[in-house]
Design brief:
heterotrimer, B: 693 residues, alpha+beta, Aldehyde Oxidoreductase, domain 4, globular, C: alpha+beta, Enolase-like, domain 1, five-stranded antiparallel beta sheet, 10 helices, 29% helix, binds flavin-adenine dinucleotide, binds FE2/S2 (inorganic) cluster
Chain lengths: 141, 693, 284
């Protein structure tokens, strides 16, 4: 995928089925590309992160990722996007626990996880407000 | 001195990350994704011995192996290797498999030597020496202030304990690596780096070519955390392979290699003694600490090996202190800078013993800190955080939480320098009104592009989306490495200066008074054919350094299984003028989550018998997963008058200390070594039978 | 294969054998084909009602991405995860070498029961629950079809350090049959991380309850022995009893009586004790 088709969205991070950065959809279900021989995918449909946005329009999930800043370095991002794309198709109204379960196989070293949960909820139509606050030092007497 | 505008319309807002869409669609190209035409793969042969004298390496069969276009020795002649995984030779070939096959055909003649990989073994006088020249345990660096012995003798209370922290591996998700392409005597290198200019300098020096002939590009990079400043051995190798093969070569390290040879956070074993008055005022402090930076203890290393020392007694001012640090060299990969080098270790020791003191004195841990912390900023942060976290309702006497699942709370504070300098930037205003900002900095995922765009947007009265921020290329005006939480504070003032000057120039050239906002396009049109290109540089007055932050943790501990779960972290952190609020908050999340990994999960495990890293993967080197992340409550303290200060590092420092204190509060016994795993919890609770075997 | 532990010249794709990917309900037993994926088991609503413990175990296996490709047969026949065994440059007893490095080394994740010098534990989550459910495994062996109990499936690994299970190289698991006589089943595990982490200890329990009494019960531990670990005498303690914490305590004591932990895995004993109590309390 990466070397011959130039589809470099899916990343190789561990090459051992432990990080999720290489996640693609095989007939709609997330799998680790690094744990699958090309021949095993023969005759089946593979969707990579490049195949989600249509005519430059991001999917609702991708939009939510940008809105909620659910990517930092971005190296894990395609994998999370694929795991959650599959989840939302299976379950359009996931709970935070469902989101955790669906993304258990994706690691992020930068620490985007809280915002990934928010993005997934937002994409499912739940408005998530940040509780983060900025307080001026002067008011901190 | 320039100052930031009093009224800011863009700065401090939550603006979408400039490169967000590229990242969520897979369009962002990282070094690992770059594939110049005809690109070969590079791969490194590493030592299988933790220590050995290498007398010969035979590449002849590898050279003849199918698909192999280059094969080199990392160093000529006889040599010593000092850790499992040290670089010996490298090949470049048309496929990964060709390289793997060729590596197996390289024969290495070596005489294995005795080795030592555990701190406790390394300090023994009869341990095998990592460096012939000196014993593994370095001479102590001792600093003493006041009358320590007398102060301890007179102290009304004295507590002591030993606290230890593990070796932590950076594990940036994009591994270390580069792609190199020569064009005659000019070299272009795509590098996953925190410093395009430092990589250029390193490579040029290493290869003996002029810096002007080396161009380094790092448009997107997948994390560094301190481990990616120089080109590393692997950077020099890929350039040499490309030269020999006369073709571009890409060499990305595997996860296995990431675990061995490209840096880590040194461990620490800290014996601490603390004396105080009955009221809780600290009067005496003594630290005797040692830790390992691997082979980096006792040697200058590639990539900026760090030592195992750290600031002590950290953020507290104690009149009488004696501090002794020693490094112990081991046959393991060298340390490198790691997000707030030294500080998490420093924090863990002092904040742990402080809570021991609080217990002994029957004082509330927050009160004890308010009594002793000299920083006015943290004083205020503690008071705010305490209310927000609900400390008074949540704090109970240690171990008094009922039931088998016990709840506890803890807190800790931190400091960090940061600050800016040494950066130039260029603003280009095109006749169609579009704007390009160029700076030879890099975006580690911290949001540098977004920061650049926001600063320019503020000056020009434009929306940030209207600005193209270009970075990660030595073809752009120079900037420093992205480390020490200095990037935002270096880049923002430089961009501001360039934009202010460009604005003035535009006004002057067009003769218009107000060119900002809706007047922008018409004004630019008057430029005619020639874009305006204006340079600026970092200026005093727009940034400063020195931040304080505090964190509170609430945990639950299952006393039957030893499992610790963090329920909540509250963080109150100052960072001067907030430039990009959204990415700033993301940094805080990131620092805290890394701190959770340090507290509960991460640990590089060395095997004494074989000398290897036993968990060179992400399966048994455990990073926190999405289900391990608690509620994180963030308060940013805004101090715009101080200018821009970095935030990436300070927020990771106190997390593990606060969690460890919360665990001790829950249980009534302290787990004094990180990470706090179930085996340690159950042992501390007396549930694990002592083995006599 | 990626760690060069196995370098087969030929790979046979079992997924192309038709009919192995079916889940068939039944009154006396359910039949699960060896090619059924762990995700299929996790998602099957009827299976979940019939064997809640099997659902719970399947949901804890690795991650969704792995469960989507991992098959039941492969899960049961998986090899050791010992970090010495998995290390490319360590040649231990299990690989045909002459020492076990874990015994005197880093054995935090290793067995507390073993009948042989290798202390690498059996870690299949599904094996633990399927043993508790008294499942049988239908295997094609040299042209014949033989039926093994779950105990049979692993027994040879108890005393032979080079084995991971009892299957011969040419044996093929065809299907697993799970009897429906159980009233309740449960699977619990403790791992360092909340998800996607190997169990430190796992525990499955199944009981048949009638007239308010446990007629028959099974408690099985995973990640503590080269086999799914159960003790007949401990199971017998449940027979004819009503639930009490004291009963759970005595089952745990009996089951753990012969534990011989090493320097770094003594914590598996209290964890197992807690899990046995919790699993039994849950099903009773
Ligand atoms: C990171 C990670 C975490 C994991 N965590 C867990 C966990 O928590 N719990 C757990 O139980 N598992 C876990 N696993 C293991 C995973 O479930 C197994 O790898 C998977 O089930 C294997 O299934 P497969 O179909 O891919 O088998 P393969 O990998 O293809 O085969 C595994 C072995 O079984 C043999 N085999 C396969 N099918 C048959 C058959 N029908 N008959 C006879 N032999 C057969 C193969 O020859 C091979 O030796 C984890 C794996 C990884 C990589
Ligand atoms: S426990 Fe078994 S697999 Fe692990 S080192 Fe010992 S012999 Fe090898
Ligand atoms: S690269 Fe495939 S799971 Fe990590
Ligand atoms: S955003 Fe960097 S690893 Fe997730």
């Amino acid at each position: 995928m990466r070397d011959h088709a130039g589809l470099t969205g899916a990343k190789e991070v561990c090459d051992r089925g432990t990080c999720g950065a290489c996640t693609v959809l095989l007939d709609g279900e997330p799998v680790y590309a690094c744990m699958m021989l090309a021949i095993q995918a023969q005759g089946r449909e593979i969707t990579t992160v490049e195949g989600l946005a249509r005519n430059g329009n991001l999917t609702a999930l991708q939009e939510a990722f940008v809105d909620k800043d659910a990517s930092m370095c971005g190296y894990c991002t395609p994998g999370f996007v694929m795991s959650l794309t599959a989840l939302l198709r299976r379950n359009p109204h996931p709970t935070p626990a469902d989101i955790h379960h669906a993304c258990a196989g994706n690691l992020c070293r930068c620490g985007t996880q809280p915002r990934i949960v928010q993005a997934a909820l937002q994409a499912s139509g739940v408005e998530v407000l940040s509780r983060t606050e900025v307080i001026s030092y002067a008011h901190l007497a | 001195m320039p100052t930031w505008p009093e009224k800011r319309s863009v700065l401090g807002r939550r603006v979408r990350r400039a490169d967000g869409p590229l990242k969520v669609t897979g369009a962002a190209k990282y070094t690992s994704d770059v594939q110049p035409a005809g690109c070969l793969y590079g791969m490194i042969l590493r030592s299988k011995w933790p220590a050995a004298r290498v007398t010969g390496i035979d590449l002849s069969e590898a050279v003849r192996s199918p698909g192999i276009k280059a094969a080199i020795l990392v160093r000529d002649g006889e040599r010593r290797v000092r850790y499992y995984g040290e670089e010996l030779a490298a090949v470049a070939g048309t496929t990964k498999q060709a390289c793997l096959d060729a590596l197996r055909k390289i024969t290495v003649r070596a005489q294995p030597l005795p080795f030592v990989v555990k701190e406790a073994d390394g300090i023994q006088p009869d341990a095998p020496r990592v460096w012939d020249e000196a014993p593994n345990l370095s001479k102590p660096q001792v600093t003493e202030r006041g009358q320590v012995d007398q102060a301890f003798a007179e102290a009304e209370v004295v507590v002591e304990g030993t606290y230890s922290t593990q070796v932590e591996i950076h594990h940036c998700l994009e591994s270390h690596g580069n792609a190199a392409a020569w064009d005659g005597d000019e070299l272009t290198v795509w590098s996953s780096t925190q410093g395009v200019f430092s990589v250029r300098e390193g490579l040029a020096g290493n290869l003996g070519v002029d810096q002007s002939k080396v161009r380094v590009i790092s448009e997107f990079m997948g994390g560094g955390f301190g481990s990616k400043f120089g080109p590393g051995v692997e950077g020099a190798i890929v350039a040499r392979l490309a030269k020999q093969a006369n073709a571009p070569v890409k060499l990305m390290l595997s996860r296995f290699e990431e675990s061995l040879a490209v840096g880590n956070r040194p461990s620490s074993i800290q014996k601490v003694r603390l004396g105080a008055t009955r009221a809780g005022k600290l009067v005496a402090y003594e630290l005797d600490s040692y830790g390992t930076a691997g082979v980096g203890s006792g040697a200058a290393t590639e990539g900026g090996g760090g030592g195992a020392e750290f600031p002590a007694p950290y953020i507290y001012t104690i009149p009488n202190t004696r501090v002794q640090h020693r490094g112990v060299a081991l046959n393991a990969g060298a340390a490198r800078a790691f997000r707030a080098p030294g500080h998490p270790q420093a924090s863990f020791g002092i904040e742990s013993i402080l809570d021991e003191l609080a217990v002994k004195l029957g004082l509330d841990p927050v009160e004890l800190r308010l009594l002793n912390d000299p920083s006015e900023i943290r004083q205020r942060e503690y008071r705010l955080g305490r209310d927000r976290f609900g400390w008074r309702e949540k704090y109970r006497l240690p171990g008094s939480s009922p039931g088998p699942v016990k709840v506890g709370v803890g807190c800790a504070g931190a400091t960090w320098g940061g600050g800016g300098g040494g950066t130039r930037a260029q603003a280009q205003i095109n006749p169609d009104g579009s704007v390009e900002i160029r700076c030879g900095t890099q975006d580690l995922g911290t949001g540098t592009r977004t920061v650049m765009a926001m600063v320019a947007a503020e000056v020009f009265g434009l929306p940030p989306e209207a600005i193209r921020a270009r970075l990660g290329d030595t073809a752009y005006p120079p900037s420093g490495g992205s480390g020490g939480s200095t990037t935002a504070a270096s880049v923002s003032p430089a961009v501001y200066d360039a934009c202010e000057k460009a604005l003035a120039e535009l006004q002057q050239q067009t003769g218009l008074e107000d060119v900002r906002g809706e007047n922008w396009k018409p004004a630019c049109r008057r430029l005619g054919l020639e874009p305006l290109v204006v340079s600026g540089q970092w200026q005093k007055g727009l940034s400063s350094s020195g931040v304080g932050g505090v964190q509170f943790a609430e945990v639950e501990v299952d006393t039957e299984t030893g499992l610790v779960r963090v329920r909540k972290i509250t963080c109150v952190q100052d960072c001067g003028l907030i430039v990009s609020r959204l990415t700033c908050e993301s940094q805080v999340n990131g620092g805290i989550i890394m701190g959770i990994g340090y507290a509960l999960y991460e640990d590089r495990v060395m095997d004494a018998g074989t000398g290897v890293v036993l968990n060179p993967n992400l399966e048994t080197y455990k990073l926190p997963g999405i289900a391990d992340i608690p509620e994180i409550d963030i308060v940013l303290v805004d101090m715009p008058e101080r200018g821009v200060i970095g935030i990436g590092e300070p927020v990771t420092i106190p997390t593990a200390s606060a969690i460890a204190n919360a665990v001790a509060n829950a249980l009534g016994v302290r787990i004094s070594s990180l990470p706090i795993t179930p085996d340690k919890v159950l042992a501390a609770l007396g549930q694990v039978k002592e083995l006599t075997a | 294969m990626k760690e060069s532990i196995a370098e087969p010249g030929i790979l046979v794709n079992l997924r192309s054998i038709p009919g192995l990917d079916q889940i068939e309900p039944g009154d006396a037993q359910w039949v699960l084909g060896a090619g059924v994926t762990v995700a299929q088991i996790e998602d099957h609503a009827g299976l979940r009602r019939a064997f809640p413990g099997l659902h719970e175990a399947a949901a804890e296996v690795a991650s969704r991405q792995i469960r989507n490709v991992a098959t039941l047969g492969g899960n049961l026949a998986q090899h050791s995860r010992c970090w010495y065994y998995r290390h490319r440059d360590i040649y231990c007893l299990k690989k045909g070498g002459d020492t076990c490095h874990a015994r005197e080394g880093e054995n935090k994740f290793h067995s507390i029961f073993s009948g042989n010098p290798c202390i690498s534990p059996m870690v299949s989550s599904l094996a633990v629950i399927l043993t508790a459910l008294d499942a049988t495994v239908v295997v094609q062996r040299e042209g014949e079809t033989v039926t093994l109990t779950m105990t049979d499936l692993y027994q040879r690994a108890w005393d032979n350090p080079t084995l991971h299970h009892s299957l011969d190289r040419s044996d093929l698991i065809l299907r697993v049959e799970v009897p429906t006589r159980w009233s309740r089943s449960a699977y619990l595990q403790v791992a360092e991380k909340a998800a996607f982490d190997w169990a430190t200890v796992s525990c499955a329990a199944a009981v048949r309850v009638a007239d308010g009494r446990i007629q028959e019960g099974r408690v099985v531990l995973g990640s503590v022995a080269p086999v799914p670990y159960q003790v007949a005498a401990a199971n017998r303690l449940l027979q004819g009893q009503t639930w009490s914490d004291a009963l759970g305590g005595s089952v745990a004591e009996r089951l753990l009586r012969d534990a011989t932990p090493f320097a770094h895995n003594g914590h598996k004993v209290p964890i197992a004790r807690a899990l046995i109590q919790r699993a039994l309390r849950h099903v009773s």
